[in-house]
Design brief:
Shape: globular
Strand order of the largest sheet: 4-3-7-1-2-6-5
Mean pLDDT: 92
Largest sheet: 7 strands, antiparallel
Structural class: alpha/beta
Low-confidence stretches: none
Number of strands: 16
CATH architecture of the largest domain: 3-Layer(aba) Sandwich
Bound molecules: FE2/S2 (inorganic) cluster
Number of helices: 7
Distance between the termini: 40 Å
């Protein structure tokens, strides 16, 4: 974890109210993994001077840049959109635990709802770099909120669902999972909690639906790894990146806790990525 002065290289609005900013921050670009986040202090000193967490959207060690993708939701993020090229931002990171890909996994399914794309976007780069196949399922309200395919690696298959059917599948992105669950070795998701809860419920029944054990696709050979360990997460079919309001982002305030099956979990320390079966999900319709 480092505190760096990240210099703005480029800033642009990519969707209504959503921005993509590129920063020169070589220390972060080389040391970050998909799923991790940075804690940013904005220059909005008129209100609470709280840092804000942002997923690391992409990191490019060759150019020393990281990108952040965010929605304007208040004074802090509005202040960010007014930042000029060359100005710097106080960025603490990388923080949190990353996605854990099983070395045996060839086909990765990434599932994002809305701004959740920022949580999985970097994993697409890592997977393509490592020679894996990637399909991204993306859900949005309507066509005007669909993440531009031009911002994704060419190698990725991109499938869209919109609530109103104005682009792609009409309905929730979770409805697309059954079509891809046999192909995918692992799935990684980020988005609203009801979406993640639906995916977790689907993932829990996957092995039985597909007869995975009968096909010889046994992950771990029956050995049980401690919940939350890297080994356990690598064996999970579904990992989720949880979005949560944060205070300290270093594990001290408990302001980011979510309920896990074995007790509270700090999103900033034990997460933001969890195996889906670590979380005590709220029932969803
Ligand atoms: S934000 Fe303080 S413990 Fe996570």
């Amino acid at each position: 974890m480092r505190l760096v002065a990240a210099q703005l290289v480029e800033s642009r609005q990519i969707l209504p109210g959503q921005w993509l900013q590129s920063f020169h921050a070589p220390e972060l670009a080389t040391g970050s993994r998909a799923g991790q986040f940075v804690h940013v202090r904005t220059g909005d000193y008129s209100g609470l001077v709280l840092r804000r967490p942002f997923s690391i959207n992409t990191a490019d060690p060759a150019t020393g840049t990281v990108t952040l993708h965010f929605r304007t939701v208040g004074r802090g993020t509005e202040w960010l959109t007014r930042l000029r090229e060359g100005e710097t931002l106080d960025m603490l990171g990388p923080l949190g635990r990353p996605f854990e890909v099983d070395p045996r996994s060839r086909n990765l399914l990434l599932i994002a709802g809305g701004l959740g794309m920022a949580g999985v976007r970097m994993l697409a780069d890592e997977a393509v770099r490592d020679g894996r196949q990637v399909t991204i399922l993306f859900g949005a309200l309507d066509a005007s909120h669909v993440y531009p395919s031009s911002l994704l690696p060419d190698e990725v298959e991109y499938v869209v669902a919109t609530d109103d059917g104005s682009l792609g599948h009409r309905g929730y992105v979770t409805e697309l999972l059954p079509e891809y669950e046999a192909w995918a070795d692992q799935a990684f998701a980020c988005g609203p909690q009801p979406m993640l809860a639906r995916l977790a419920r689907l993932a829990a029944g996957r092995r039985e639906r597909l007869g995975v054990a009968k096909l010889g696709r046994k992950r771990g050979g029956g050995k049980t790894d401690p919940a939350g360990s890297v080994a356990a997460r690598r064996k999970a079919f579904l990992q989720v990146s949880m979005e949560q309001t944060m205070g300290c982002a270093v594990g001290a305030c408990l302001g980011c806790a979510v309920m896990g099956v074995d007790g509270p979990l700090r999103v900033c320390r034990e997460g933001p990525v969890f195996a889906a079966d670590e979380i005590a999900w709220e029932p969803v319709s």
